[in-house]
Amino acid sequence: MSILSLRIRIIAIAVVVLLIIVYLVMSATFHNGYDHSVIAIDDDERIPLWYPHQLVKWCPGGGGLHVDLNDWRDFTSGTLPSFVNAPILWKRQNSQAPRVELENIIQVNFSTNVVVGVSEMKEDGNGVRMAKPQRRFFLFAYGMKEIRFYSDESIYLSDCAKYGIDGRNLKTFEDCYAAFVSSEEKLGFYDILKYPTVAEVTVSDILPLLFIVPAWVVCLICLLSDTYGYRKECLTHCRDK
Question: Can you state the angle between helices 3-32 and 189-198, rounded to 10 degrees?
């Protein structure tokens, strides 16, 4: 085998290995991103609504499990420098959306731009825990600055109809979560490849590649150098004979 063909084989294998690594990094970004992550932190189950809002089933401070409507950005900002979480591709148009939070959601129904349902209020307006929790209807839609609450079901249903959603067709978080997980299992190779073109990509998403690619280049150079040196040594040895 000539040294040229050996080099070509090494380069070809190295390129395949690099492509596999890049795909694995993209896959991790896909499955851990806002649109497709089925958990928030540890094992808290989540369902994305429209960015950056989400439904999360979690157990804060050792209390009982409950479902909240909250903000994905509160789970991802962490203590890293701001530039690490800054978007570098396809910045979401509604990245400045208001932060909203609603605890103890009992049942929900949602679409691409609205979420409705029933929540349980355990404290009064002064933060004093009530002897008997009160349930109330709620509606939150894209473009709203805050959640609307209803004590009158007829008004609630009328507003739901304005947003094209059935306020009576409510489901538990568990049923909605099962459907979300099932839909994620149907996504595959093509969905992962196109994800960077439709979702926000941040510096932190590509950080692994900033370390992997230079390491790959160094390894490739070393392999080619060793191959050339080994080949040269063999030729010298053959001439001596």
Answer: 70
